[in-house]
Write a structure and sequence with these properties.
The protein has helices spanning about 15-25, 40-50, 70-80, 105-120, 130-140, 155-165, 185, 220-230, 235-250; strands spanning about 1-5, 30-35, 55-60, 85-95, 125-130, 150, 170, 195. The protein is an alpha/beta fold and about 250 residues long. The radius of gyration is 17 Å and the shape is globular.
Length: about 250
């Protein structure tokens, strides 16, 4: 069972990362994709991946940090793509909820990182919050089909169809377990070969642990919910989603 989106180099895991990984293994997690969000975290991701073969990594600049992206950062991120087990560019995209970077800057940096991924034949991991139409416009303007993951999906069925049409897999995490979320209704109709599992640790903790730090071992609660709404067994979902990660990111697990 692969957790396709974690941030285990986050300060919230300082002091007990060994225990976190032990619980993950006990829960059946066999692979983790650690995601960068700026240059420093991308470098940390490369070091984390080099030190533990349970990990794969993605490097990139999050829309929150788009203002930090310049030619030097671009070159260093691209260099990191050559490191072993760094498999994707991400997380990249647009976030109009917080607007921590100006929207025009976010769009430009998003485009540049899409280009970087294509030059280096890497999939992309998309962050999208309150910016779906704009994300889709940038992707459409860049043209072609895509490999990668639309991370932390919370959209509706119509939007999911647009995401799937571009070639993306859809990342399903803790939100699917939230009582007020309608995501479970969307998940029930998603193609089984296009769903990947993620926790986004330490964020988006699933029920019944909301309000606490998220960690990869909680992936089992996401699988349980997907099983409930799709009628497929947990074992089948774990097998399907592992195969989907292989296709989405080109990893070998």
């Amino acid at each position: 069972m692969v957790d396709s989106h974690v941030h285990l180099n986050h300060e919230n895991f300082e002091g007990d990362i060994a225990d976190v990984l032990s619980r993950a293994r006990e829960a059946g997690v066999t692979g983790l994709v650690n995601i960068g969000f700026d240059l420093a975290s991308s470098k940390e991701t490369a070091e984390l991946v080099a030190g533990d073969t349970m990990f794969f990594g993605a490097v990139g600049v999050h829309p929150h940090d788009a203002e930090t992206f310049d030619s030097d950062v671009e070159q260093q991120i691209e260099k990191l793509l050559g490191r072993d087990r760094i498999v994707a560019v991400g997380e990249i995209g647009l976030d109009f909820h917080y607007d921590n970077s100006p929207r025009d800057v976010q769009r430009d940096v998003f485009r540049r990182q899409i280009d970087m991924a294509r030059w280096n034949d890497r999939p992309i991991i998309i962050h999208c919050r309150d910016a779906f139409d704009d994300v889709m416009q940038v992707l459409d303007e860049a043209g072609g089909s895509y490999r990668g993951i639309f991370h932390a999906y919370t959209g509706d069925a119509k939007q999911a169809a647009q995401v799937l049409a571009l070639g993306f897999h859809i990342g399903i995490g803790g939100v699917v377990t939230f009582k007020k979320s309608t995501l479970s209704e969307v998940v029930a109709d998603l193609p089984a070969d296009r769903i990947v599992l993620e926790t986004d640790s330490p964020y988006l903790t699933p029920a019944p642990f909301r309000g606490k730090r998220n960690e990869p071992s909680y992936l089992t609660h996401i699988v349980k919910k997907i099983s409930e709404v799709t009628g497929r067994s947990g074992e089948k979902i774990r097998k399907e989603t592992d195969e989907n990660v292989v296709r989405a990111l080109g990893v070998s697990i």
